[in-house]
Amino acid sequence: MTDLLSELRRTRILAILRGVPPQHAPRLAETLQGAGIELFEVALSDDLGLASLRAIRTAFPALTLGAGTVVTPALAQQAQDAGATFLVTPHLAPDVNAYARKQGLGLLAGALTPTEIYTAHAQGSAAVKVFPAGSLGPDYFRQLRGPYPDLPLLAVGGVDARNLSAYLQAGADGAGIGGALTRTDWTDPDWTALGRAAQKLVEAACN
Q1: Number of domains making up the chain
Q2: Which H helix or E strand runs over 39?
């Protein structure tokens, strides 16, 4: 978990791959890596997730790769079997958090309120995924830094190249970003546009 947090703080961006067909998932990962993104989550909220996760892990054995939208221990086990080395939840899920601890997997647990955020941290989350961050904006992170100056926070939901730096300046250790990195027609992907979008985010993370 320390390694996951260190990588998050170093790279600042967690790419969230949702709805990506498995036949295109490895090339998308390669495209995003080419732009400087190194941390990846494949969301398991649809039928494509596990196959895409497996495809990326096969193509990139050493990639820091996690599974998102993990809501049950059974799904957590499937994610681990498919190659995930960390788990991401959309909400506080104590049974999933316990599974991650038992299996030695990294964890980014979802939470929103101060009570949930502290509980997620206490249950072993390397950084707490504050979701949906866009509903409350960067100032929410600024206010959280009062009582929790050192608690690692990940902003997820509504973050893009236009506001990423604002969240980082307000106290987020990094951001999980999905739509901006996967928005294309998957029957004919525009790899150049996807690469440009990734480069803009990487540049914003450095500002």
Answers
A1: 1
A2: strand 39-43
The domain that contains 48 carries what CATH number? 3.20.20.70
Q: Which tens digits make up the pLDDT trace of 151-184? A: 999 999 999 999 999 999 999 999 999 999 999 9
What is the signed CA dihedral for 77, 21, 5, 133, rounded to 10 degrees? -110
Which domain covers residue 180, as residue numbers? Answer: 2-206
Asked if 55 contacts 24 with a C-beta cutoff of 8 angstroms, the reply is no
pLDDT tens string 66-117? 999 999 999 999 999 999 999 999 999 999 999 999 999 999 999 999 999 9
What would the two tokens of residue 175 be?
């951001």
Rounded CA gap, 119 and 65, in Å?
24
C-alpha torsion 37→43→49→55, nearest 10: 20
